[in-house]
Amino acid sequence: PGWVAINNEKVEGSVVVGSRGERFEWNCSRFDELGPEHFAQLAALGAELIIFGSGGRIRFPQPAWIKPLMAQRTGVETMDTPAACRTYNILAGEGRHVVAALLVERPEGG
């Protein structure tokens, strides 16, 4: 819908949120704006798992983009953003150190 809810707050841009309090704006509003620098930011967080919400439909990052995550043995799961939100909530609720990188796309004409 062009937004996600984080702790009852409506967030209308792409965001990274982690189970240990990490939260920052992810500077991209469309999948084709993503690049290796976006995933390098995630590698610096040291999470056991990155959940990549790729927007309204599932799209996979290029393998070169996630190389830094693979090198440190950080798991990366890709799914659409609504599924990523649900999965993050479950895993964070289990006490795991997870990070959700959520691509929030603006609706057409919005």
Explain what this protein looks like in three dimensions:
The N and C termini lie close together (10 Å). The strands form two sheets. This protein has a five-stranded mixed sheet with strand order 4-3-7-5-6, with helices on one face. A two-stranded antiparallel ribbon has the order 1-2. The longest helix is centred in the C-terminal third of the chain and has 13 residues, at 81-93. The chain has helices at 36-43, 67-71, 81-93; strands at residues 4-6, 9-11, 15-18, 23-25, 49-53, 75-79, 98-102. Helices cover 24% and strands 25% of the residues. It is of the alpha/beta class and 110 residues long. The chain is built from three helices and seven strands; from the N terminus they run ββββαβαβαβ.
What's this entry about, in short?
The chain has 110 residues and is an alpha/beta fold. It has three helices and seven strands; from the N terminus they run ββββαβαβαβ. The strands form two sheets. Strands 4-3-7-5-6 form a five-stranded mixed β-sheet, covered by helices on one side.
